[in-house]
Specification:
The protein is about 40% helix and about 20% strand. With about 425 residues, it is α/β, with parallel strands linked by helices. It has one domain: Glycosidases (TIM Barrel). The strands form 3 sheets. The chain has an 8-stranded parallel barrel with strand order 1-2-3-4-5-8-10-11, surrounded by 6 helices.
Length: about 425
């Protein structure tokens, strides 16, 4: 079998702290104060300050790959002005990973933006493509020789749904037309960044991390609910995959929206990043404004996470089969559980990794697994109340770190290398 990457996944903003961006601005304006919640960032997990200690912990777990991002707002605090001290800091982090023999997987966009972005160049404008491609070009010129694997965007459909669909993220819009326009611009920007990376490093691998959900009918006996689950699968899971093959973004959701737009992608993607967490149920309800009811239940008997999500390992196998039809390599770029029950976290890892091993044995091109996440950190709408990490962060006591039993469990799995021969740590393309 091909080499396999065992990794951990993070995002810069959720971990680093000590930065101002659109999310901290949104928090200050009360944008996150919804549904009785008021999540506070409070410097994430202070990784910007404690990164050297964190990397020693990372190495102790035995991973041979690490997925992370670089915070756009830190690097380009003013439009067209790049902060060299921040770039130098990131280069030290990157060089340390390479010295440790850990393969970097760099995510360029993980939900956050500089404070100037939405006012000057929102994703609904073509100017967004230019500013992000310029930002990416700068990182490519500086780091291309050190990075083999690039992820252009993390969960772009999730982001536009939150930012332009239900106003949970900045810029806080609720407009389907703007949402689709923003998504189209992001896909076009992916193609632009893909070309620039390939121009600088032809053999580099470029992908996109996409969230996948298994949708189930709320009432199996009700044909409308079964059709709804199929529609949601087509929109959320399949539409983006199809766009790369068809050069069109198209979908029809009866009575809600209908679009068919050209987007020249020409299959410019080398791998799909699969972010998988749960199965979700959906049902129609008699409410014109909100005709769909989404909910979770423990139908499979594996339990619910602290997020209230159903644990459904079998769904990962289903998603991997569907994504493999794209003909591209697959990395599980996120898979994790919010819990304080370490036995449950270890069972979660075991069951999902079992699905991966089965997929590989059946010939599916699954090349790596990245548990989400390395450290307990800031979880967007939930703040710091949900703990996904393999390393505990004591927010009340100077962000002190403590390795959890699940980290040791993962280390034993990696040492046993049950997916096949581990990838060489400094595998240079």
């Amino acid at each position: 079998m091909d080499p396999f990457y065992w990794g951990l996944a993070t995002s810069a903003f959720q971990m680093e702290g000590f930065v101002q961006n659109d999310m901290t601005q949104w928090e200050a304006l009360g944008g996150f104060r919804q549904d009785g919640k008021n999540p506070l960032y409070q410097n994430g997990a202070a990784h910007w300050q404690y990164w050297q200690e964190d990397y020693r912990l990372l190495a102790s777990i035995g991973v041979n790959a690490y997925r992370f991002s670089m915070e756009w707002a830190r690097i380009e605090p003013k439009r067209g002005h790049y902060d060299q001290k921040s770039l130098d800091h990131y280069e030290r982090m990157l060089d340390t990973l390479l010295k440790m023999g850990i393969e970097p997987f760099l995510t360029l966009h993980h939900f956050t933006h500089p404070v100037w972005f939405h006012a000057q160049t929102p994703w609904t404008s073509e100017a967004a493509q230019d500013v992000f491609c310029s930002f990416a070009e700068m990182l490519i010129k500086r780091f291309a020789s050190k990075i083999n694997y690039w992820i252009t965007f993390n969960e772009p459909l999730v982001w536009v749904l939150a930012a332009y669909g239900d106003a949970k993220f900045p810029p806080g819009k609720n407009n389907v037309t703007e949402m689709i326009h923003a998504f189209l611009n992001i896909l076009k920007t992916h193609a632009c960044v893909y070309d620039r990376i390939k121009s600088a490093r032809p053999l580099a691998r470029v992908g996109l991390a996409k969230h996948f959900i298994v949708f189930a009918p709320g009432r199996k006996w009700f044909a409308a609910d079964r059709s709804l689950a199929d529609l949601l699968h087509g929109f959320f899971n399949k539409m983006t995959l199809d766009a790369f093959k068809l050069n069109r973004l198209k979908f029809r959701f009866p009575f809600l929206f209908n679009f068919d737009e050209p987007v020249v992608l020409n299959d410019k993607i080398d791998f799909w990043g699969v972010n998988y967490y749960y199965r979700m149920y959906s049902a129609f309800k008699l409410n014109f404004r909100r005709p769909i009811h989404f909910f979770f239940k423990d139908a499979a008997g594996h339990g619910l996470t602290d997020m209230g999500w159903e644990i459904y390992p079998k769904g990962l196998g289903q998603i991997l089969k569907a994504v493999a039809r794209s003909g591209k390599d697959i990395f599980i770029t996120e898979n994790g559980i919010a819990t304080t029950d370490e036995a449950l976290r270890m069972r979660f890892m075991d069951e999902h990794i079992r699905q991966i091993l089965s997929a590989r044995q059946n010939g599916l091109p699954v090349r790596g697994y990245f548990y989400w996440t390395f450290l307990d950190n800031y979880e967007w709408l939930e703040g710091k109340s949900k703990r996904f990490g393999l390393v505990h962060v004591d927010y009340a006591n100077d962000f002190a770190r403590k390795v959890k039993p699940s980290a040791e469990h993962y280390a034993r799995m990696i040492a046993g290398d049950c997916a096949g021969k581990a990838a060489p740590a400094k595998n240079k393309i």
